[in-house]
């Protein structure tokens, strides 16, 4: 269930030529405010604006030549759809992206701009899955899951690998947790390349399936609730959860107003744009300041794709 | 009227220990869009969020010990007030900042947070000047002008010096122009450290005194008009204008909607926060794309202090 070190090393080599080695930024003010020494890994500066590019580029490269020719398909309405389209374009592979009617036209246009072949369906999950299945059958395309896929997980782990190459002795790395791909990949990276680096997930209280799963030992569902961190409205899966269960120290739950406050602090003080999902990891740190005091903490700022016409402040 | 190379070199040495050597960022998308190769000097990441820190720290160091003991005073309601407060604090010098009643409380608090001694007056210029004069007389403090002061100009020039150290063969450097301190300092830096690097100012059409001054050969006033680029609502002065007249190639005027569009492009594509004044230089480039085509162009992003509750989009 836990891939060995060499799988990560190989993913690192596969991913590197196609992604930005993103900046690691620090902030004197936020160090003072938190009492910890913070290192922000800026995946908001990544190609297409989010870490998801890493998993997509790794997964596509692992397909056979016949599969690459047939293409890849996903039904993510968020960053993974854009990431898959751009990654596929970089590798000259067709990408079919199923998107719900409810998706903002700017996102549909972004996917098309990256060369993705868009299919619009009804907004419910069933319709989206059905449309994706149809493409799999008709085109022979490979369905890629945004987070519950080992090659995607390994790809996402390369952000933390880069971070640990630059800052070797981190005590903690914090990431947001939604579907669990980034958290699982980060946990693997810390396990093999950290020096006793613990990994903690930040999760919206309103969608706390990962928190409950870590307590119960089994995958949990999000029944109700909503969150501004719209990239995190998903569940852990059977491939990433065993990694998370084994290698992640804890999940810290963050309330909506804390997410917005953390986001605003980073915008105002670091002058960079992060999406609400990214702010959840920093919000988790602020929520449990005492725990991180005087520690060196890496925070993965997962992305920067926000709708500037619809900000929470 | 034009200081020699050694004055800039010395300013560079004086300023360096007290400021961030800010990042130079690039954007594949914006290169494609503009047809030029762009290098953004990110003074929005500078201490207190703007280049003004550079001029303030240089000017204070040039005072005598007695002057330093008495302190410095300015009546800027914008970034220079904050810059002077923080620079003075770094050098253990008292800073008296005269601010109008109309200044947002967040700005007043920022100045106080940097240790500035704030005097609130009526919002008109006369009241502010009177209050500043009173402090000069009572405390013996030295009045520093935000842009029409040779030591301030030399300090502002250090941003372009750093940029040219990193990217040696820039064809152009663009800066916004308001009071003229940054533009004059940049022109000096390009003159001594560039390789035929031309300097162009971007100016709001509604406040185009620098454009008119370059045509008429004398300092011009802004009679009417308003601009979202609130840092640029000021006039050239008798110390910076001779430098600008001699060393600046041109001023490009930018309309309000072009400023906002340029700002939005940088936020959305580079995921960094810049203030409207900073967007004017990039807006000038977009306005006259043909002129810059296939050239290497440095753009000084002057600052990132915006009110997130009051955005133009």
UniProtKB/TrEMBL annotation, chains A, B:
Matching SUPFAM superfamilies: Tryptophan synthase beta subunit-like PLP-dependent enzymes
Record GO biological process: D-serine biosynthetic process
GO molecular function: ATP binding; L-serine ammonia-lyase activity; magnesium ion binding; pyridoxal phosphate binding; serine racemase activity; threonine racemase activity
Domain Tryptophan synthase beta chain-like PALP: 17-303
UniProt keyword annotations, A-Z: Lyase, Pyridoxal phosphate
Cofactors required: pyridoxal 5'-phosphate
Pfam families associated with the record: PALP
Domain of life: Bacteria
Keyword Lyase in annotation: yes
Similarity section: Belongs to the serine/threonine dehydratase family.
Record's protein name: Threonine dehydratase
């Amino acid at each position: 269930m836990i891939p060995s070190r060499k799988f990560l090393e190989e993913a690192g080599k596969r991913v590197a030529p196609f992604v930005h080695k993103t900046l690691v930024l620090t902030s004197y003010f936020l160090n003072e405010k938190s009492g910890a020494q913070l290192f922000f890994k800026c995946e908001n500066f990544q190609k297409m604006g989010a870490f998801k590019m890493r998993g997509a580029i790794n997964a596509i490269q692992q397909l056979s030549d016949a599969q690459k020719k047939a293409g890849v398909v996903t039904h993510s309405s968020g960053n993974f759809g854009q990431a898959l389209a751009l990654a596929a374009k970089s590798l000259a592979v067709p990408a079919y992206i199923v998107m719900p009617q409810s998706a903002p036209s700017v996102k549909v246009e972004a996917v098309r701009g990256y060369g993705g072949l868009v299919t619009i369906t009804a907004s419910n999950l069933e319709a989206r899955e059905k449309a994706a299945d149809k493409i799999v059958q008709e085109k022979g395309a490979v369905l890629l899951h945004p987070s519950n896929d080992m090659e995607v997980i390994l790809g996402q782990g390369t952000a933390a690998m880069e971070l640990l190459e630059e800052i070797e002795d981190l005590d903690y790395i914090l990431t947001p947790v939604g579907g669990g791909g980034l958290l699982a990949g980060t946990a693997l990276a810390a396990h093999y390349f950290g020096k006793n680096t613990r990994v903690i997930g930040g999760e919206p209280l309103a969608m706390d399936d990962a928190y409950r799963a870590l307590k119960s030992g089994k995958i949990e569902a999000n029944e109700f609730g909503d969150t501004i961190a719209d990239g995190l409205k998903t569940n852990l899966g059977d491939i990433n959860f065993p990694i998370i269960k084994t290698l992640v120290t804890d999940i810290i739950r963050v309330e909506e107003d804390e997410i917005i406050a953390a986001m605003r602090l980073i915008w105002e003080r670091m002058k960079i744009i992060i999406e609400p999902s990214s702010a959840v990891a920093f919000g988790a740190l602020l929520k449990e300041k005492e725990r991180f005091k005087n520690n060196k903490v890496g925070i993965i700022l997962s992305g920067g794709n926000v709708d500037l016409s619809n900000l929470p402040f």
